[in-house]
Amino acid sequence: MKHLSEEQLIDILMNEPRDAALDQHLAECPPCNERYRLIADGLSVAEAAEPIIPEMPRPMISHAAFRRRTWLKRAVVLPLAAMLVLSLLGFGFQSDQDGFSVQFSLLGTQTTAANHDARIADLEQRLLEAIELNTKLTQNQMDSRFEAVFQERDQNLREFSTALNAQIKGIELQNSENMVDLREEMLQEVRTAANQGR
Amino acid sequence: MEHLVDDIELVRRAQKGEGAAFDVLVKRYESKITGLVYRYVRDTDTALDLVQDIFFKIFRNLVNFKGESKFSSWIYRIAINDCIDHKRRLKVRKEQSLNQIQEYGYDVADERDEANIEDSHLAQLEQAWVRRAVADLPPNQQSIVVMKVYQDLTFDQISEILDEPVSTVKSRLYKALSNLGSVMRRKQVIEGGRT
């Protein structure tokens, strides 16, 4: 037996016009009945979740309000679009303490090309200056690094020579003591030999 | 007398720039659209903002309305699409803010647990889960639940609004209701396990 389709089950659930045989099938078919009970549960969840619409202020909607809104938008967007188009055509806009001014140079004319060349030359000059400055800074940094290394080396040498001198002095002192002891021993041996000879 | 004039006549007059005709159309559909939108978004401020946007879209696009469908269907379609867009934007924003929180090293899992605890408390008090279950439906399923179950529109009307065959609308409603039914079953199992 063919089971009920999703649409047929929805027709039964939502009480839509339908063939009576569908209800008959539903009553006799456990799988279809289980699917029906699932969507019936779903419907009860949806109904339980239906929000109660609170009192709301009336939104400010009218033809006049929307016309104002449209004009306001146009008042902002149109001048901006016009400025963009004009600037693409070669107009320049400037606002300073003297007020608002507009410059114009035709697109593709010699003037515009000359302006471009001048701007490129200016940018190249700035780039060269930046490279030079960077080189100087790098050189200064390297110099100060070397200076620090040399200072550290001198300090280490000083410490090393002081320590070496102290060690040499210690060895010399030890040698002197050893020489004194040796002399004493030799003198003792000489005295002993002299006594034996007598 | 304006209430006796049909939509098409009012639209024709509004298209010619007659502000009063547009205002009558607004008056005719304002509360229906507000109800539809509120049932979808469940927030007064958001609903009012969306209703403003929807009617502004209608105002701007009225000249393009050719009368191929009923004016009511056309207006509902704009409203439903706006609600669906709003829901999608909200979802994206939520995901972005979650990602941001994670980027800053905040423990989202802990926060979610806290939210779940709070929500479950709410659920016990107000049965918030049913609202959440409907709100969690995919936008195209939720819109059918709103239109059919809450607004009591016919399948033919919904079909015209969405520009989809009736069979698709019914099938989508079936999926929405079985999703909600499954949520209910899961909840029953969980509650059965607790007791």
Report on the structure:
The complex is a heterodimer of chains A (198) and B (195). Chain A has a domain of 41 residues. Chain A is mainly α. In chain A, 76% of the residues lie in helices and 6% in strands. The longest helix of chain A is centred in the C-terminal third of the chain and has 88 residues. A two-stranded antiparallel sheet of chain A has the order 1-2. By secondary structure, chain B is an all-alpha fold. About 3% of the residues of chain B have low confidence. Chain B folds into 2 domains: 81 residues, RNA polymerase sigma factor, region 2, helix turn helix motif (Rna Polymerase Sigma Factor, Chain: A), CATH 1.10.1740.10; 59 residues, Arc Repressor Mutant, subunit A, CATH 1.10.10.10. Chain B is built from 9 helices and no strands. The interface between A and B is large, with 39 and 47 residues.
SSE map:
The complex is a heterodimer of chains A (198) and B (195).
Chain A: H1 6-13, H2 20-28, H3 30-48, H4 63-89, E1 91-96, E2 99-104, H5 110-197
Antiparallel strand pairs in A: 1-2
Helix pairs in contact in A: 2-3
Chain B: H1 7-15, H2 19-41, H3 44-61, H4 71-103, H5 108-126, H6 128-135, H7 139-150, H8 155-162, H9 166-194
